[in-house]
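Appendix B. Chain record.
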Amino acid sequence: LGATELSVISTNPEGIINSFNNAASRLSGYDPQEVVGQATPAFLHDPDEIVHRAKELSDELGLPIQAGFDTFVAKARLTRKADRREWTYIRKNGERFPVMLSVSAIWNESNQLTGYLGIATDITEQKKTNDRIIESESHLQALLNSIDDIAFEITDDFVCKNVWTQKRAFLFA
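Structure tokens predicted for this chain:
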């Protein structure tokens, strides 16, 4: 796991961090000795998101979910499936950034919960790319909405791919 770009954090059943790989350290700015055996991964998260997600989960699962470590692991523990969602991490220096976090419960051969595994990746660049695509699509739509005639999108093989017009009379019946 030392060479992976994925942040991998394991905890005991109570949520105390057992392992914190190099990618987790690079991503968060914390050294493993600062957190292993001393904290739950909740310190990496936006507190408001934790409270909001705890309320969502309480409604979704029909159980009271406390804001804190249980917010991240309850669904994985109860469904025995990985719970994957976007969160905001906060680096040691206070910088905030989006991650995609997958949390799994770890069970031993006797079907006892032995801990949790969280795997996160920084999705800052992915979100920036998505934002640029949305902006580009909005710009294209505004441009197409402003034309008075008809616009065709043609493939390299001269096949009509899309047609845009404000005037339905320009379209073939």
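Further analysis of this model is presented in Appendix C.
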